[in-house]
Design goal:
There is one protein chain. The protein folds into two domains: 82 residues; 218 residues, Neuraminidase (6 Propeller), CATH 2.120.10.30. The chain is built from three helices and 22 strands. 35% of the residues are buried. Helix 1 runs antiparallel to helix 2, helix 1 packs parallel to helix 3 and helix 2 runs antiparallel to helix 3. The strands form five sheets. Strands 1, 2, 3, 20, 21 and 22 form a six-stranded antiparallel beta sheet that branches. Strands 4-5-6-7 form a four-stranded antiparallel beta sheet, with no helix packed on it. A four-stranded antiparallel beta sheet has the order 8-9-10-11, with no helix packed on it. It has 310 residues and is α+β, with helices and mostly antiparallel strands. It is 24% helix and 39% strand.
Length: 310
């Protein structure tokens, strides 16, 4: 065995080991992983080891066969990785999501106040729930047909479809007042479309972000539009993670899609969500929280989605 053949054999074995380890590291079912590994081994023995031992192939052909095997191993491993772990840019989304059933009929807005989740329901109620799904309170919305909901650190903001207004309101939980959201201020939203679509709200620490169909607006607390950008899909949810925007859209019959953008709408990352259908989105406690459904016609659920920075 000459030097070229020895080097070829070593590279081929290393490529095979890397491919096998990659398969086991990406949560491929054991039976599928073993089937793929056996295929790699057979190909490697047939195209590399046997010709080297019998001297039937020259070094150039050996390098070619090893290169093809490495492409096969890398291609299948990468394809499996992308299938089981959604990856984009410097972030990875886990392939599973924890969920619990939402109170009410249909959650269409979700907010995080630093400790608890708040859900706006199309029954004109707002629910306070903990992260395990226990309902801690139920309050009347400041106006009917509430959708997008967000928290600015001291008060809530909500969009309702009855007049297309955005309301700032507070909830007194002392027990000495009626359980109703108390309006502080309101203004006409820039919404241009109504009906069977979702409108999202998010707070970036100084201003509101509002989604309407295929458009996202940045607005101040008096309702002035500061900027806007178009999005290529009908927006189902909107969230702010402290640095970037997260946009959800539904991709029937496949799972929903999560997109991370900058404040000008440039797409930074895109993932298939571990949730079938999304109605609303928020960011809290280092996670994305999505109101949605696990299947067509399923119950309204709240999902906790882990986003990992690599």
């Amino acid at each position: 065995m000459n030097t070229y053949e020895i080097v070829t054999l070593i590279i081929g074995i290393l490529g095979l080991i890397i491919g096998i380890l990659t398969l086991f590291s990406i949560r491929v079912p054991l039976r599928d992983a073993l089937r793929k590994i056996w295929g790699y081994v057979k190909d490697f023995i047939k195209s590399t080891i046997v010709p080297i031992l019998t001297g039937k192939k020259g070094a150039v052909l050996q390098w070619t066969s090893v290169f093809l095997i490495l492409l096969l191993v890398g291609g299948i491993s990468y394809g499996a990785y992308m299938h089981f772990t959604e990856e984009g840019g410097e972030y990875v989304i886990r392939s599973t999501a924890e969920g619990f059933e939402a109170p009410g009929r249909l959650t269409q807005g979700i907010a995080w106040d630093g400790t608890y989740l708040w859900l706006s329901d199309n029954s004109a109620e707002i629910f306070k729930v903990d992260t395990s799904g226990e309902t801690l309170g139920a309050y009347s919305s400041p106006a009917p047909t509430p959708e997008g909901l967000t928290w600015d650190g001291s008060t809530f903001w909500i969009f309702t479809t009855n007049y297309g207004y955005i309301y700032q309101f507070s909830i007194d939980e002392s027990g000495n007042v009626p359980k109703i959201g108390k309006k502080i201020s309101s203004f006409d939203s820039p919404a241009q479309t109504f009906g069977a679509i979702n409108h999202g709200l998010a707070w970036d620490g100084a201003n509101l972000w509002f989604s309407d169909y295929y458009k996202v607006y940045k607005i101040d607390t008096e309702g002035n539009v500061l900027s806007n950008f178009d999005f290529q899909h009908e927006i189902a949810g909107l969230a702010w993670d402290g640095e970037k925007l997260w946009i959800a859209y539904n991709s029937f019959p496949e799972n929903a899609i999560l997109v991370m953008t900058d404040t000008e709408g440039n797409i930074l990352s895109s993932f298939t969500a571990p949730v079938y259908y999304i109605d609303a989105l928020t960011w809290g406690d280092g996670y994305l929280w999505a109101a949605g459904k696990g299947s067509l016609g399923g119950e309204s659920m709240i999902y906790k989605i882990e986003v990992i920075r690599k």
